[in-house]
Design a protein that fits this description.
- The structure holds two protein chains of two kinds.
- Chain A is an all-alpha fold.
- Chain A has 14 helices and two strands.
- Helices cover 23% and strands 34% of the residues of chain B.
- In chain B, the strands form four sheets. A six-stranded mixed sheet of chain B has the order 6-7-8-3-9-10, with helices on both faces. A five-stranded antiparallel sheet of chain B has the order 13-12-11-14-20. A five-stranded antiparallel sheet of chain B has the order 15-19-16-17-18, with no helix packed on it.
- In chain B, strand 17 and strand 18 form a beta hairpin.
- The chains are: A mainly alpha, B alpha+beta.
- At the A-B interface, helix 10 and helix 11 of A face strand 6 and helix 2 of B.
């Protein structure tokens, strides 16, 4: 866990700072003499980031297995070579990206549609808004347990009950569709977040703009595509960025529900590093995985920032 | 060719009635201004014409066709909003061509119309900019351009100049007047600024609390207001109102005694008032003048020298405060005692209900 945390923390801080950097108004020229004022916080943050990073890098070049204290020593790139020749590693990389892509697509598409829906006046709207946002405040382990035991369990679960009540065979979700099940749980958790951000964005749309579009002959669908969606562009970018940060390191939901299985079907990079460090006690190998996670996060962040930052500039 | 007729138009939200039985005729190529204080219903009325607000009762007729149940896009109208309501993610060209694009007008024709509108509004250098990169006046022109491109029967303007600074407002007023002449279009314009109303309108509609107070040309409203509200609303500085009683009636008008004992004779019709009735005297600031033999006496409280005009604030003895407007620069000093004369042709008399008594001497430009 702690080793996984090093990499995750590093790019979480980095990515959040990138988001902050691009969402704030144009930076003013720094006045002389301010450096000393910001120095303490910068120093703390730097230590906070640098120490774990350097330790992770250091361990990744060591033979360091807790089950084999005698085999310690400098490993060169052996840990990395071992990792990238491991088919499990590539599978976990694929799983990480599949998880990220699907949850992003589901939450952004449905979040946008629901945001437009929840912007319309209807009776009980405030209660409906409260309910739809609620899942975001359930902690990941709890929501994963709820889905695992109360919803998707073939014997005790609601879905199984519904299937049996119409005479169907209950589906053992985590055995038959493990990845889809995890994606479902994560989407349930993150849809409220996307909805919340997008709803506030929809509400900030200038009323007269919509009326102008109506005068110009735009029906509801044309208004959605020509007015609402472009207006939401910036908010969608923010949702994608923030969700990416957290979805790349999904751990609790997988740990609680499938433990990365069956086989390696739901093992993502974060879970793989956990398994290396705390199941196989191979600290060196896990650290190599952590370093690769940092690289992956930076590659994703690079492309994300390049494509999205341009929108935020406007 | 576009005429607009409102017949007993009403608007209510639940039991709250905001537009009450409005009847109005707008002739082809007329520039009509709706003017009134905040909350008088002028914007609501415009939005009802545009189709953005439901009409609760009555008929909206454009070119002889009842349009109550026709959507805003199909009424053949175009509207310029107070906030301009430009689409921020589109360039000026796309903003102006948006309606045509939705109507599936071929690209070449679309380009031609946009180019034509851009030429009229001198927007050609800015066609590829986005609204965020333009000044307020330029955005305003784009909003007008978006309306022109649609070639509407009637242009609707909802307080279009209120977000501009004073200098630009003056400039855009002239530009709009020029545009009205060049496009030969029917225009309906909502404002709370009486200068805009006076300078641009062919016809002013004064609204208050959902009711039309008076319809007329700017000069009719100025020289012959129908009631106290219109008299007080049109004209700056405001018309002076003095309370008094009718003391004499004859064929040439009536005379009014003020509390101070001063007597003012005015040529108005006297059919609806009798001797002893309480009336309100309405005197425009320019209808008063400094005159040592004048009937009104008072003390100067404040002098505003505008250069070409001088405004003298006078506290009349027992009759209340008035403002006197004098051409040119005047040397009158505060605290000085003055006497004021009245130009009887420019004075108004309002009866106890606030209605103006018709003037016997009509202003030559108001026929």
């Amino acid at each position: 866990m702690t080793l996984r945390g090093h990499g995750a923390l590093f790019w979480r801080v980095a990515a959040i700072s990138v988001v902050v950097e691009f969402t704030k108004p144009k930076r003013q020229a720094r006045k002389p003499g301010t450096l000393i004022l910001v120095a303490p916080s910068v120093a703390v943050l730097l230590l906070w980031m640098i120490v774990p990073l350097v330790m992770t890098l250091w361990f990744s070049f060591q033979y360091y297995n807790l089950l084999n204290p005698a085999g310690a020593g400098f490993a060169g790139i052996d840990n990395y070579r071992f990792l990238i020749t491991d088919p499990d590693f590539w599978a976990s990389l694929g799983n990480t990206l599949i998880l990220l892509g699907s949850v992003l697509a589901i939450t952004v598409v449905f979040g946008t549609l629901l945001a437009v829906l929840y912007d319309q006046p209807f009776p009980g709207r405030n209660i409906a808004r409260l309910l739809v946002v609620a899942p975001f405040f359930v902690m990941p382990t709890v929501s994963a347990l709820i889905w695992k035991n109360l919803m998707m369990h073939p014997i005790y679960g609601v879905l199984g009950f519904l299937a049996r009540s119409v005479g169907l065979e209950p589906v053992d979700w985590f055995a038959e569709y493990p990845m889809a099940s995890v994606i479902l749980i994560l989407s349930w958790e993150w849809l409220p977040f996307a909805l919340l951000i997008l709803l506030t964005a929809v509400q900030s749309l200038d009323h007269e703009q919509r009326e102008a579009a109506r005068m110009d002959g735009a029906g509801p669908i044309a208004q959605f595509f020509h007015i609402t969606l472009p207006h939401l562009g910036r908010a969608i970018s923010v949702v994608v960025m923030i969700e990416t940060i957290f979805l790349l390191t999904v751990f609790a939901e997988i740990f609680v529900t499938t433990s990365g299985g069956p086989g390696n079907a739901t093992t993502n990079l974060a879970f793989l590093i956990y398994a290396r460090a705390l199941i196989q006690f191979d600290v060196g190998g896990a650290s190599a995985g952590g370093v690769i996670a940092i690289l992956l996060a930076n590659i994703v962040a690079f492309f994300l920032v390049r494509t999205i930052a341009r929108r935020l500039e406007v | 060719m576009a005429t607009l007729t409102l017949r007993e138009i009403q608007k209510s939200y639940g039991s709250l009635s905001v537009i009450k039985n409005i009847d109005l005729e707008v002739a082809d190529r007329e520039f009509v201004v709706f003017v009134g204080p905040s909350g008088c219903g002028k914007s609501t009325l415009l939005r009802m014409i545009a189709g953005l607000e439901e009409i609760s009762g009555g008929d909206l007729i454009i070119d002889g066709q009842r349009m109550n149940d026709i959507g805003p896009a199909d009424r053949g109208l175009a509207m310029v909003f107070q906030s301009y309501a430009l689409y921020p993610h589109m360039t000026v060209r796309q903003n102006m061509g948006f309606a045509l694009r939705l109507a599936r007008v071929p690209k070449a024709e679309r380009e031609k119309k946009v180019a034509e509108a851009a030429r009229i509004l001198q927007l050609e250098p800015y066609l590829d900019r986005k609204p965020g990169q333009m000044s307020g006046g330029q955005r305003q022109r784009v909003a007008i351009g978006r309306a022109i491109v649609r070639n509407p029967k009637i242009f609707l303007f909802d307080e279009p100049l209120s977000n501009l600074d004073a200098a630009l407002r003056g400039q855009m007023r002239i530009e709009l007047a020029r545009l009205h002449e060049e496009l030969n279009a029917t225009m309906i314009y909502v404002t709370h600024d009486q200068v805009e109303a006076m300078t641009m309108a062919d016809k002013i509609v004064v609204l208050q609390a959902g009711v039309i107070e008076q319809v007329g040309t700017p000069l009719q409203l100025y020289h012959h207001p129908a009631n106290l509200f219109v008299a007080g609303f049109i004209g700056s500085p405001r018309m002076n109102f003095l309370k008094g009683r009718v003391t004499g009636l004859d064929g040439t008008g009536l005379s009014v005694d003020l509390p101070s004992g001063a007597r003012v004779a005015l040529p108005v019709e006297t059919a609806t008032v009798g001797t002893g009735d309480a009336v309100t005297l309405g005197l425009r600031p320019e209808a008063l003048r400094l005159d040592p033999q004048g009937p009104l006496g008072g003390t100067v409280r404040l002098v505003e020298r505008l250069g070409g005009l001088t405004l003298i604030h006078v506290d009349l003895d027992r009759d209340g405060p008035v403002i006197v407007q004098i051409e040119g620069s005047d040397g009158t000093a505060p605290h000085q005692s003055v006497r004021l004369g009245v130009d009887p042709a420019a004075g108004q008399v309002f009866d106890g209900t606030g209605k103006a008594l018709p003037h016997l001497v009509r202003h030559p430009l108001t026929h």
